[in-house]
Amino acid sequence: MEALDVQHLKKVYDGMTAVDDISFSVHEGEFFGFLGPNGAGKTTTIGAAVGLVNPTSGTVSVFGHDVVKDYRKTRALIGLSPQEFNVDMFRHAWETLINNAGYFGVQRAVARERAERLLKRFGLWEHRFKRFQSLSGGMKRRVLLARALIHQPKLLILDEPTAGVDVELRHWLWKELKTIQKQGTTILLTTHYLEEAEQLCERVAMITHGKIALIENTADLIKRYGGHKKLEEIYLQITGSDTTEDGNAPAV
Ligand SMILES: Nc1ncnc2c1ncn2[C@@H]1O[C@H](COP(=O)(O)OP(=O)(O)O)[C@@H](O)[C@H]1O
Ligand SMILES: [Mg+2]
């Protein structure tokens, strides 16, 4: 059974097609990279997986359960670290974690114990009673990751979890994410750091203009391109992302 199975997913916003009939699946236990330039449709696809985006057509299922028909069940199987900070800015990390655990029906005593463990592991324990808005960018990202893990999801979805995070923290996160995968969690990651995808992802999908350009085992892909190229060079070749989605040169 696939951890995530997307079949002919299409999403149209006011006549604009954001996701155009894509199909792919993420195998149980794997670390899967979902790559593409800004505006390609990655966050929309993730939204469909967590039930935040209503598909125009097509289906998404999580461990065999349809996301639309079985929303509560599928949502509980997923831990999401979203691209945007969708957190109450005045709430502190402790409360954010405990509330989220409650939302997924985790017993209060269990939630407290897990929250303590996660906050300590992520270096947030001393900051647990600070307002979200007062935390650094790197701490905010770690709170989102801890929140995503509090109900022990089988599928962890990370939408640009290392955006704006310094190199040291990024490398620390890579190690943590590898450990989380080893402990049995399936991971879907979107990132603009191709080195990150190369280090972590066993398979990658590349998406442009709402369509999948490629899905392949990362090592095989690099081998197919002669073995000496970095994933970033291959990515640029495949996605043609020397320009942005609207055809303009990227802003510097
Ligand atoms: N709620 C929305 N309403 C209208 N257009 C949207 C909405 N969300 C995303 N889009 C558009 O859909 C396209 C895909 O966006 P998104 O899924 O966020 O891409 P990515 O995550 O790959 O950057 C973009 O053109 C974006 O402007
Ligand atoms: Mg996005």
Describe this structure in words.
It contains nine helices and ten strands. The chain is globular. The protein has a domain at 2-88 and 154-239: P-loop containing nucleotide triphosphate hydrolases (Rossmann fold, 3-Layer(aba) Sandwich). It is α/β, with parallel strands linked by helices. The relative contact order is 0.17. Helices cover 37% and strands 25% of the residues. The model has no long low-confidence stretch (mean pLDDT 94). The structure holds adenosine-5'-diphosphate (ADP) and magnesium ion. Residues 13, 18, 36, 38-44 line the site of adenosine-5'-diphosphate (ADP). Magnesium ion is lined by residues 42-43, 83, 159. Keywords: ATP-binding, Nucleotide-binding, Transport.
Low-confidence stretches: none
**What are the bound molecules?**
adenosine-5'-diphosphate, magnesium ion
Task: Summarize the amount of helix as a percent range.
Answer: 25-40%
Helical stretch count? Answer: 9
Count of individual beta strands: 10
| CATH-assigned fold name of the domain at 2-88 and 154-239 | Rossmann fold
Estimated structural class: alpha/beta
Helix and strand pattern: EEEHEEHEHHHEHEHEEHH
Strand content: 25-35%
Mean pLDDT: 94
Pfam families: ABC_tran
GO molecular function: ATP binding; ATP hydrolysis activity
Protein name: ABC transporter ATP-binding protein
InterPro entries: AAA+_ATPase (IPR003593), ABC_transporter-like_ATP-bd (IPR003439), ABC_transporter-like_CS (IPR017871), ABC_transporter_ATP-binding (IPR050763), P-loop_NTPase (IPR027417)
